[in-house]
Specification:
- By secondary structure, the chain is mainly alpha-helical.
- It has one domain.
- It is about 70% helix and about 0% strand.
- It is built from 17 helices and two strands.
- Strands 1-2 form a two-stranded antiparallel ribbon.
- Helix 8 packs antiparallel against helix 16.
- The longest helix has about 45 residues.
- The N terminus and C terminus are likely disordered.
Length: about 450
C-alpha cells in the first residue's frame, strides 16, 4: 500500500526518486494480485457447478455463492488502491441497492437474508464489472480468451458424454449428488446437458462467450495456436445440436453478425473472414458425416421445430424471448406495490427461504423480476442504468471498430445479449454478465488509450 509522501523525502531528490519507484512497484504488485483475483472469479464461474455436483456435493448450497467472497475481496482491494471508478452507473446502482434493502425489510417481504442475497447483485457483482475493466487491459482479455478456447475442448467432450449417457450416469449427476440428473428436457428422449455447470443455461452462456473469441482469433490468427483455434471451432459447431438449445444458436448468430459488420468496415479482415467461414463449412461438412452429430442434429431439429411452433413461429420466438419480456414487465407493473415486494424475492434462493420451495414468486422474465422486487421507480432505475451502460459501451466499441480494433466490438455482441436483461437472479448468468461487461471495458484499454464509462 502506498504511503503519504514524507516531508524529508520531498526535500531529498535521490530519496524522493527511490520512494516513487518503491510505491510504483507496490502498485504494480497490487494490480497483479487483483488480476489473479479476476482469474479466480473466472475459473470458479466455469467450475462452480462441477464442485457442487461431483467434488463437494455436500456443500452444494454454500458453493452457490462461492464467487461472492472473491468479488467482495476484489471490490475492497480495488477501493483501497483507488481503482474503483466513481461513475453515475455505479453510484446509481449502489444507491438503489441500499435503498432496496431498506424497503424490502420495512415494507416488503421482511426477510433480511433474502434482501441481502438480492442486494449482492447490485452491490457486489455489478460494481465488479468496473473493477475488471479498470485492472485488466486488452492483453489480459486476449489471454483469458485463449484459456477459454483451451477449456472448450475438454468441456465439449464432457457435454458429448452427458448427451449420450442416461441421467443416472455419474457425468449427469445433479447438484448435491442428485441421482435424478442435471439434464433438462430436450427431444427424442435426449436431455440438454449441463456441462460443468449447475444448470443447462451455463453451457449456452459459455459457448456464446467462447464464440466471441473464436471469431476474433480467426480474424487475428497469429495471436493463438492454430490447432487450438480449429479444435475450439469444431467444438462450437458440435455443441450447437448437442446442447439442444435454441438460445445458443441465436446467440452465436448474433456474434457472427457483429463480426461480419466489423469486417465490412475494415477491408483488411475480409479475406480472413472468408477463410473462417470456409473453414467452418468444411468442419460442419465433416461433422455431419459422423453418427454422434447426426443423432444430436435430429434431436435439435425436433426440439427447434416443436418449440418454435408452440411459440408462434420464429417471429414469436424472437419477439417473445427478447422484446416480449420487456413489454410484459411494463404492462404488468401497475399492479405491483410502489416499493415492490422486496429485493431477492424473485430469486430461487429467495423463494426457498420464504416458501420452502423454488419457484418464480414474481416473474420469470428479468425485467418483470426487477420491477416486481423494487417497484416501478427503482426497478425502472435499474433497467435504465443497465441500458445506459450498454449504450455507452456501444458508442465506445463502435469507435474502436471504425479505427480497426474488432475485439471490443465482437465482445459487445455478448454484452448486449447478457447485460440489458440477462437473468441476474441466476448466479451463472450473473457471473457471465459481470465478466463480459468487465472484459468489454478492459478491451478498450490499449497502449495507454482508455475509454471511461
Amino acid at each position: 500500500m502506498s504511503v503519504l509522501e514524507p516531508p524529508y523525502i520531498a526535500a531529498n531528490g535521490a530519496a524522493y526518486l527511490q520512494w516513487k519507484q518503491y510505491n510504483s512497484l507496490l502498485a504494480q504488485k497490487a494490480v497483479q494480485q487483483l488480476k489473479k483475483g479476476v482469474w479466480v472469479y473466472f475459473i470458479l464461474l466455469i467450475f462452480e457447478g462441477a464442485l457442487r455436483k461431483w467434488v463437494l456435493p455436500g456443500l452444494a448450497t454454500p458453493l452457490l455463492i462461492i464467487r461472492d467472497p472473491v468479488a467482495l475481496w476484489l471490490l475492497v482491494k480495488a477501493w483501497q488502491r483507488g481503482l474503483l471508478p466513481a461513475n453515475l452507473h455505479l453510484i446509481g446502482m449502489t444507491l438503489i441497492g441500499f435503498l432496496g434493502i431498506c424497503t424490502a425489510i420495512l415494507v416488503g417481504h421482511g426477510d433480511i437474508a433474502v434482501a441481502l442475497f438480492g442486494a449482492r447483485i447490485l452491490l457486489i457483482h455489478f460494481p465488479l464489472t468496473f473493477v475488471i475493466g479498470r485492472i485488466f487491459d486488452r492483453n489480459d482479455v486476449i489471454k483469458l480468451g485463449r484459456v477459454t478456447l483451451w477449456l472448450l475442448i475438454p468441456i465439449t467432450v464432457l457435454v458429448t458424454l452427458q448427451f449420450y449417457s442416461p441421467q443416472s450416469a455419474w457425468v449427469n449427476r445433479g447438484v448435491g449428488g442428485n441421482m435424478e440428473g442435471s439434464g433438462f428436457s430436450g427431444a427424442l428422449d435426449y436431455f440438454r446437458p449441463s456441462g460443468t455447470f449447475s444448470f443447462t443455461n451455463g453451457n449456452s452462456l459459455l459457448y456464446c462467450f467462447g464464440s466471441c473469441f473464436i471469431f476474433y482469433f480467426w480474424l487475428n490468427p497469429k495471436q493463438i495456436n492454430r490447432l487450438v483455434l480449429i479444435g475450439a471451432t469444431v467444438c462450437l459447431l458440435a455443441v450447437i445440436p448437442l446442447s439442444i438449445s435454441r438460445s445458443l444458436l441465436f446467440s452465436i448468430i448474433v456474434v457472427f453478425l457483429f463480426a461480419l459488420i466489423g469486417t465490412s468496415q475494415n477491408s483488411k479482415y475480409t479475406s480472413k473472414m472468408l477463410m473462417a467461414a470456409f473453414g467452418m463449412l468444411v468442419a460442419l461438412a465433416v461433422l455431419s458425416q459422423t453418427a454422434f452429430f447426426q443423432k444430436a442434429s435430429e434431436a435439435f431439429t425436433v426440439r427447434f421445430e416443436s418449440a418454435t411452433e408452440n411459440e408462434g413461429g420464429l417471429k414469436g420466438v424472437l419477439g417473445g424471448r427478447y422484446l416480449g419480456g420487456m413489454i410484459t414487465a411494463l404492462v404488468e407493473s401497475p399492479g405491483i406495490p410502489y416499493w415492490g415486494y422486496g429485493l431477492g424475492m424473485g430469486t430461487n434462493v429467495g423463494s426457498m427461504l420464504l416458501t420452502g420451495s423454488t419457484s418464480f414468486l414474481i416473474a420469470e422474465g428479468e425485467w418483470g423480476r426487477v420491477i416486481g422486487e423494487l417497484g416501478l421507480l427503482m426497478g425502472l432505475g435499474v433497467i435504465y442504468i443497465r441500458l445506459s451502460f450498454c449504450m455507452q459501451l456501444l458508442r465506445y466499441c463502435y469507435r474502436r471498430m471504425c479505427s480497426g480494433e474488432l475485439l471490443p466490438w465482437i465482445l459487445l455482441s455478448f454484452s448486449l445479449l447478457s447485460i440489458p436483461q440477462g437473468q441476474w437472479a441466476q448466479p451463472t448468468s450473473l457471473g457471465f454478465s459481470t465478466l463480459i461487461g468487465g472484459l468489454t471495458l478492459a478491451s478498450l484499454t490499449n497502449r495507454g488509450r482508455e475509454e471511461t464509462v
